[in-house]
Amino acid sequence: MAEATKTADLAKAFKILKDRAESAEEAKGLLEAELIEAIEPDPELLYPYEPDYVDGYDIKVFGRTRIKVEPHLRDAYYAGEPILLIGDSGNGKSTIATHLIDLANEKRRAHNRAVYARNLAAIKKGVDESKLEKYRPLEITRQYLSCGKETRRANIIGDVDIEYDAKGNKRVVIRYGALVLAWTLGRTLIVDEMDKPDPGVWADAHQLLDGRTNETDLYINGQTHIKKHERFRIIATANDPRCTNSGEYTSSDVQDLALLNRFTVWVKVDWLQPDKEAELIVKKTGIRKDIVEKMITFANQTRKAKRENVVEECVSTRTLLAWAREIVREEKRSGSKASASEYWNKVAIPAASMTVIMRLTDEATQDAFIKFLSIH
């Protein structure tokens, strides 16, 4: 279907050239678009996964004022240290992890963007497509593992599977889990919500994370020998790695503490600074700045209450983004051009019903949120 469309577009361009000499520019534009599409690389070769990352995260260090988190994490990542990011759900831990990979790939992407610009210029001059410059593959690739209560050893280490050929003959094959794939292929493994599974599922991972083991044997349908790739990295995120939904984590089993000790760099990620959080949300959604600042003021109230154990949940950056997107859509539907106070009542509050109130499961947080809406 795509090839047929391309052929039709070219035919249209040639027809314009033949039938209407005054439309040569239109035909040229169609032809250029066709040629440019032919050399278009995979977007990930040119652009970062997290283009809207903002340098607004910081950490508290004993005996010092707050410091920026990015330089410390960047250096630890380049050194190959296993990194554990701790913090509330939705505050940007996975974004930080992906951003570190983007930083590592930026030199290669900058090269590819320059190649892309030269290729475009060459195409417009009529250079044959076969003579264009080649793009370089990224040096760092991601492996992603999202954990939950159902995560098992097979997801992390691997398992056996049965395959059937066209004649119905079966054979046993080994399927490596996310950690083993990253370890052997040199990928950066981002483990999201590492504290969600039962601790025992990580038991076989210890040797792969200790920093000293470069090759070892796994037991998946028998003995399998694997070797570590020098580019292997791991960044794990957790709400609180010292406990799980089922109870104590580090104190329940010596192996649990052994796993955590493999992560040599721990960082407790705080929420974005208010001005940076507002900058991010405005950039991603186009919402009015005065409204998003008001939203963040309340979000920080719930975050403070959660730290003080007054409520069990808080309004995250992820929730604020969902709320902001719905506010923008509600504004378009209602056509409201009201003042800030009227806008809050006519646009922001209705948008909160589906994006904030419905997702809060803790009644104390929900009550606090509704009270805030009613008095502002």
CATH superfamily of the largest domain: P-loop containing nucleotide triphosphate hydrolases
| Order of strands, widest sheet | 4-7-10-3-13
Overall number of strands: 13
Largest sheet: 5 strands, parallel
CATH architecture of the largest domain: 3-Layer(aba) Sandwich
Topology pattern, helix = H, strand = E: HHEEHEHEHEEHEHEEEEEHEHHHHH
Count of helix runs: 13
Short description:
This protein is of the alpha/beta class.
Give structural notes.
With 376 residues, the protein is an alpha/beta fold. The protein folds into 3 domains: 2-48 and 109-131, no CATH class; 58-107 and 139-268, Rossmann fold (3-Layer(aba) Sandwich), CATH 3.40.50; 274-375. Helix content is 47%, strand content 15%. Strands 4-7-10-3-13 form a 5-stranded parallel beta sheet, with helices on both faces. Helix 2 (24-39) packs across helix 4, helix 9 crosses helix 10 and helix 11 packs across helix 12 (340-355). The model is unreliable at 243-255 (pLDDT under 50).
